Every structure is written in C-alpha cells, then in structure tokens.
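New here. Invent one.

***
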Amino acid sequence: MKKFFKLGCFGFIGLIVLIIIISAVSSGGDSDTSSNEPKEEVKEKKKDAPKKEINYGIGDVVKVGDLEYTIKEKKEADQVGPSVLPEKASGKFVVLEVSLKNKGNEAVTADASFFKLKRGEKVYEADSAASISANQGEDGQIENSFFLQEVNPDSEAAGKVVFDVAPEVADASDLKVQVQTGVFGTETETITLK
C-alpha cells in the first residue's frame, strides 16, 4: 500500500507538471496574437500621423487643450515697467502682448512659464520679474502679471510676457512662441512671430 501511495504521489506531481507544460505550450500560441498587437499600434499611429500642420501667427486664436492663446503684438525694448523702477534687460527684451482664455470647467493657474520663445532648436524661458514689471502701471498697480494667476472658466487674462535675450535673437525673423496646456505642457502649439 505504501508503495502504491508513493507511486500515486509521483503520478499526481507528474500530472500537475504535465498540465503546466500543456498550459505553457497553449499560451505560447497567444504570443503570436501579442506579436500582432504592435502591428495594430503601428496602424493606429499611422492614423494619427497625418495631423495637419497649422501655421499660427500673431493675431490667431490658438487652442491648446482647454486654453485659447492669442499673441496680439511683439515689441522689443531695453527696459520695461514703470519709469520710477524699470526692469533693464541684460540683452534685449522681447515683449509679447498676449491673452489667455480658459475654456475648461476648472480654474487654471496661469504663469509666464506657459510661454517659451524658440529659435531653431534653442528654447528661451520667460523672465518672470520682467513680466511682472511690464504689467505694472505708473501707479504701482499690477494687473495680469502671468505669475501664478488664477484664471476661472470662461475668463480671460491679458498682459505682457517678457523674454530677456541677446540682441541678435530679439531681431531674428525666425522666432516662434510655444504655448502649452499647463505647467507640465502635455499639449503644445507653436506660433510664428511675424
């Protein structure tokens, strides 16, 4: 009886091993299906690939996520802000008159970092202090500074965003502005400054 029990245990273990092997072999056929999945992903990417490139310029309303941007004007300056305490450029200021409208369902905290000046592969960040100063009146009041400013749904913020760049960059004819959905910039669009 003990001999049969030992043989029965080995038989039972052998049966389990056999089931595992059969499962592994039969699921190996599913790996062919998974090799088809990347082909489907490639097809999906091809569907998304023909995204039509739109060339936005000054005055165009540019929708990025729930935000709508408009670059109203581009100027150059050596200093910005009130005459009492102006902010002076180390190079030259590129001053953009912009508006941002929140078309979403929740408030957005807008910031000058939503705007990036681009020339070829080079990216220039907005100068926060100069942007605040550029939005300051002679009486000291600051409106729409684009410094952590809450913009509620269906509301608009308008003001100046300032970049301190080298004079040859400020004068360049191939400058563009990248605008984004928020701090992390998951969605972006580019506006040509001509």
